[in-house]
Amino acid sequence: xxxxxxxxxxxxxxxxxxxxxxxxxxxxxxxxxxxxxxxxxxxxxxxxxxxxxxxxxxxxxxxxxxxxxxxxxxxxxxxxxxxxxxxxxxxxxxxxxxxxxxxxxxxxxxxxx
Amino acid sequence: xxxxxxxxxxxxxxxxxxxxxxxxxxxxxxxxxxxxxxxxxxxxxxxxxxxxxxxxxxxxxxxxxxxxxxxxxxxxxxxxxxxxxxxxxxxxxxxxxxxxxxxxxxxxxxxx
Lengths: 113, 112
Fold this sequence. Notes:
- Chain A is mainly beta.
- Chain A has strands at about 5, 10-15, 20-25, 30-35, 45-50, 55, 65, 75-80, 85-95, 105, 110.
- Chain B has no helices and eleven strands.
- At the A-B interface, strand 4, strand 5 and strand 9 of A face strand 4 and strand 5 of B.
């Protein structure tokens, strides 16, 4: 199993450009999450999804959009990129059940210049 | 909703000494408490977890304790080694059909 796969690993954007960060999991997990992690800081939840067709805002959703058309995929869209969005982005998934262990992707390092 | 507080944000200990990281949670319905380790350039990975029907769990040099009454849980690392240097996150969940909430993380430095 590949687990959680994120692409790309690195990206440099110019101010005002748009891009989509891809996230795919092959574990049939219902829950998926997007976090951003600024240098030396903790994880901030951007958006999460409890299943296909359902998404909810986290603590820092402004400037981002998500969709969940399938169980496997949870892309994160940045519209009109700003320097404040320079960060490392992590996608994660958890199963439902008694022990919902979170599995993380390797991260996407995004720089907006 | 659930809120997880984690302390300290940074911790430095001499190699061979013990390290303790503490977390508190707000939702008394939470019943699953995992700990994650994030090494440089990687995503967090589960290192140990505990359920609310257990007070303590050990795995070699790592142990987690849970006090349900006080709503706090702690990670204990004994005989620390250089490879223990990382960022550690606690988390809480009601399990079943609920999302997981992370603490803000603790950067652990093991000093030679």
